[in-house]
Structure of Anti-sigma F factor:
Amino acid sequence: MNQPGRNFMSLQFAARSENESFARVTVAAFVSQLDPTMDEITDLKTVISEAVTNSIIHGYDGDPEGIVTISALIEGDTVTLSVEDKGRGIEDVELAKQPLFTSKPELERSGMGFTIMENFMDEFEVSSELGGGTSIRMKKRIVSKTALYN
Ligand SMILES: Nc1ncnc2c1ncn2[C@@H]1O[C@H](COP(=O)(O)OP(=O)(O)O)[C@@H](O)[C@H]1O
Ligand SMILES: [Mg+2]
């Protein structure tokens, strides 16, 4: 129950692009208790942005009635982030994860969202059900500044 070094937050918001920066800043603020480096904060903000944007534009196709849920779990020096939607789901997850694959080339998407998440985090998992939604889970160990400079 009250294990040392364990903390958790969860947040739901409307699938509107205005909320992308809200999600990014909230996660950065929560994780700041681990004393991350600027680079680590930038990586976490980037992956949250990519995953939340995917839920909004792909999962819900821009429908602001959709709800995005994000959560962050801190266990010791490791943070686990999750981003979930109840949108359209992904037909072929392996294909979707390929670098440069995008189902919306007309929106000038880069097709690099999943590749960025995979590269910036230590662990990365996608589970998705067609018509049921998508859930992304990613984990990263934070090498705190305190540890670096002591
Ligand atoms: N939450 C989601 N719901 C439905 N489809 C998704 C979701 N996230 C990603 N996808 C699918 O995976 C593809 C690849 O995603 P990504 O690598 O972020 O590239 P991009 O967003 O630039 O298309 C998307 O084009 C889309 O088809
Ligand atoms: Mg994307």
